Amino acid sequence: MKKTIENKANKTQITDKFWGHYLEVVRDQVIPYQWEALNDRIPGASPSHAIENFKIAAGEAEGEYYGMVFQDSDVAKWLEAVAFSLENHPNEELERTADEVIALLGRAQGEDGYLNTYYTVKEPNKRWTNVRDNHELYCAGHLIEAAVAYFKATGKREFLDIMSRYADYIDNVFGPEEKKLKGYPGHQEIELALVKLYEVTNNEKYLNLSKYFIDERGKQPHYFDIEKKNREDERPFWFNNDYAYHQAHQPVREQDNAVGHAVRATYMYTAMADLAAKIGDEELKKASERLWENVTQKQMYVTGGIGSMVFGEAFSFDYDLPNDLSYTETCASIALVFWANRMLNLEANSKYADVMETALYNGTISGMDLDGKKFFYVNPLEVLPEASEKRNDKKHVKAVRQPWFGCACCPPNLARLIASIGHYIYSQKEKELFVHLYMGNETTVEVDGTQVQVIQKTDYPWDGNVSIQINPEKEQGFTLALRIPGWAKGATVKINGEGFDHIPLIKNGYVYINRKWKAEDTVELVLPMVIERIQSNPQVRQNVGKVALQRGPIVYCLEQVDNDENLHGFLLPRDAELTAEFVPDLLDGVVVISGEAERIVEADWNSLYRPVSDQTTPVQIKAVPYYAWCNREPGEMIVWINEKR
Amino acid sequence: MKKTIENKANKTQITDKFWGHYLEVVRDQVIPYQWEALNDRIPGASPSHAIENFKIAAGEAEGEYYGMVFQDSDVAKWLEAVAFSLENHPNEELERTADEVIALLGRAQGEDGYLNTYYTVKEPNKRWTNVRDNHELYCAGHLIEAAVAYFKATGKREFLDIMSRYADYIDNVFGPEEKKLKGYPGHQEIELALVKLYEVTNNEKYLNLSKYFIDERGKQPHYFDIEKKNREDERPFWFNNDYAYHQAHQPVREQDNAVGHAVRATYMYTAMADLAAKIGDEELKKASERLWENVTQKQMYVTGGIGSMVFGEAFSFDYDLPNDLSYTETCASIALVFWANRMLNLEANSKYADVMETALYNGTISGMDLDGKKFFYVNPLEVLPEASEKRNDKKHVKAVRQPWFGCACCPPNLARLIASIGHYIYSQKEKELFVHLYMGNETTVEVDGTQVQVIQKTDYPWDGNVSIQINPEKEQGFTLALRIPGWAKGATVKINGEGFDHIPLIKNGYVYINRKWKAEDTVELVLPMVIERIQSNPQVRQNVGKVALQRGPIVYCLEQVDNDENLHGFLLPRDAELTAEFVPDLLDGVVVISGEAERIVEADWNSLYRPVSDQTTPVQIKAVPYYAWCNREPGEMIVWINEKR
């Protein structure tokens, strides 16, 4: 096994104001609410039945299975969010509840290790007959992820043992050996989970099974056809009969362009990067890099949203990024964060961390309101409420967040991401400690046997001043590699108050500072946050003549509540001065961008068309962070603003 | 009965080059092809079965009904196109074929006058049980229109008598009397047809039945609910259960905004204007005017396309005019021509004729290729072939015309419109002769008992010089009212070579020239055709910063074949000189617009987003008439061009 870059940083305590708020919301709102939901105690909401399904499977309750075929995964994501939350904020009662759920899972598990309530309760003789549609392996993956997180957070083995037994059983069902099924999941997820299970167990069987699922995918004869024939299923597959929906249209290693369901795709790409790193697989690494370039350079919204098509919740084609039709599922942006994190393990290059940061500060957290009570499944870059209401082709674009979803994938996914935010800040490769994200936290890492405390302080994302104090228990030589974000121009670095020319130390976007660190050594990084007008590649046909405003990692938008209706009539001159101001009592405290723009005069129009004769009038515009939109009065919203012409 | 403005002009011979070509194509291609289609003799095409259905209904063939529930209407539209074509171009063989079809219709008619092959053959006991969905009254309407046209063209009464019997029967089924059904058609059409039937028969019963259908519509209790209950049909109506699809959501006279299926709506508006004129109904007139303003000032594409939504082939909401998602069915633009024609009967105002002209020269004939062999059902204003291929929400937007459709409504509808083009040029109100359209033709009208020959010569739409020679059989005083199109600035008028100030004679866009006309009096009208950059009302959010090019009545577009791909990257400076040139060997002879624009340099882009830094390079652009797009190599097309900013 090749030694790979791994995220060894742990015991990270978030002290950050921005993320601290989100952690608190997840802890105090989302996790308790979701627990009530899983137990069918939310008045008015359609029941989840997810806990009840496990009770029935365990023989402790009577009744029928109810819910989506992947209902088990809601329990998994909740347990994983709980695990990450406990890391930052111990809570005995919550942990006891989790332990009880885990014990229930154990009792619901079959003698052979099988653990899926849908099949156990509803179709006990049909296990593994439809891995294309029925999410058995997907649910297993989420449960494995939760078990690993719970083990890491609490040190308790019970859940990990349950899932290891299940994984052992799955390994007996699928694989290259003659009597095993040659299948792989219709919804990828278990591939990345098995890598995590390998990391904590060191059992290579799990790594090999993950690699098997990746390598078997898309081969001919096609497994989805084989199992379809076996179950005598004549129905065409709904996505125009195209297995590109599952990224199973061709062998994974040959894939160049991101296609199909964006979450499935991106979970798979995450596992590919994981495997490439763990086993030193150069071909998988190249495939990961090709797909990364395609997604981030041709199919990603400026907010880190991916998947521009409601049909199939899918990628469409290069540069096809309509702002008003986008699907940009919250889960897809979350998956992009996972993938970026794994690409960073393959290679410390700021292009990965830049995308991770973009998704974290924009397209993921836009999925939840500031109170953690309402959620967007779809994160469009342009909303006209009347269009969402009246156009069938835009009905997926909700003008306001919803309390919960029938398919409740996004809220718990966001909960587990936020609760684990500390895992994305650092990574370590032997004597190199990389700092990918800037946020207040206290972490302890081990370098060459020395415990090193790292204390980061910053008012990010509103201010680009970052202070990092290094406290090794004894003087210790190592490299601190600081990411300079792509948006930061003229960054400066000081050590213990002394500036120096850091430019020669930059490699792939990171400043490599190698020295013997001693207690209270302090690095001060200044990342100037200026307001940038961002343009799209001209092949993005929807955005020609438009700019998006960005400051630091934050992408801005115009909301009707701050401006007026018909936001398309606001024209921003290229040379208009824009100012940034922190407003503490707005949207839990945000930097607002203001300036004088022009607005097309509507009053002098009394027809639908006429020969050109522009009339504009000066108007003040006010832009707020995209992630925080729709936390006040509902209305129009746009990210891409027409420029003055 | 109030005396109304009526289209009395007849015996119009088209001598126009532009429309003469289309008449020839309809005569030589569309009508013969369609005849083969109706008789299932097109290899490879799915059978129409429409003639066979009539044979089965007549007891002259064995078999089952086949085809859409409205298959009869294809025969009707073919007969109507034949009738109009015979007016301009007698053809004994074609007329004999039509007579045979008409005789067949007669034999398929029931004793009671009923004539619908679907119900006669397939569900003989279920007549009038589902007027919401099953198009019985719609088919009757098209057959009535055809019968009227055939009577006017040939003087033969047989078809007219058949349809009068059917109309009499329908009048016995529907109406206010106690035992009659209180229904009205799900697809409007018979309302306008009954007015035509009244015009040739003078039987007020038909006018009253038309008015009954209009006035009953949308009343509560809702007839569609009543008949649904009667047939024990529990299914919700597919259009989100909203009768706005049928414009039956509220009483017709109360309607302010165009909603629902665009063709149904516009056929109904046509009948409303008809009725308002015929019976002097001020309330219906006001409703027609309100709806006209809504459609043409808030819901119409610059090409005269209407219906911006594929779901329901429907209007959406004010100013919602996406260029790449539009439905803009050919039939809907055709219906807009009908409606404009009727509004002109209500009031001679050039705003109606301007829209009629726009639709005729752009959004209707774009539905057919120059050879009359392939057709667009949907006429988008922006096409990217890859999007049509890969995005499910754009699959209705075809990148190339199709040979025929399963639902073959548009091709025969276009055929009958083109064949009847001569009916839209003039209208007469007592001693006022209005000239609405400019095209080469020779017409004879009767003014105050005097036969007046009118000879129009022009190279319209490429040249705005129009000569109109007036040849009364004896000197005759009357008013010639010439439309000055909204796009024409600085028009001049001469009579027998002498110019005069016509401005004081203009009323509602028409120059009223009253004089004693004698043989060979010639009016010369010059309508300067300059290239205009047209802007949209700023509430059309998709078109901010864009212009459409128009010259005379012709709207232009950019095609990839003349320019390059990524047409959105072409920027047209406001002050760029544009020149117009007639190119005889291009697209059967068109005026091409050329000029120097700029193009965003794509070569210096190596990312998806970056801070603003425009690089443009000069580029020649070439625009061709929109109606003629997609007659060469397929590719991208746009009507709305980004301006240089």
UniProtKB/TrEMBL annotation, chains A, B:
Residues 532-642 form the Non-reducing end beta-L-arabinofuranosidase-like GH127 C-terminal domain. Coiled coil: none annotated. InterPro entries: 6-hairpin_glycosidase_sf, Beta-AFase-like, Beta-AFase-like_GH127_C, Beta-AFase-like_GH127_cat, Beta-AFase-like_GH127_middle. Residues 433-529 form the Non-reducing end beta-L-arabinofuranosidase-like GH127 middle domain. Pfam families: Beta-AFase-like_GH127_cat (PF07944), Glyco_hydro127C (PF20737), Glyco_hydro127M (PF20736). It comes from the Bacteria. Residues 13-422 form the Non-reducing end beta-L-arabinofuranosidase-like GH127 catalytic domain. Keywords: Hydrolase. GO terms for molecular function: hydrolase activity. This is Glycoside hydrolase family 127 protein. The lineage of its organism: Bacteria, Bacillati, Bacillota, Bacilli, Bacillales.
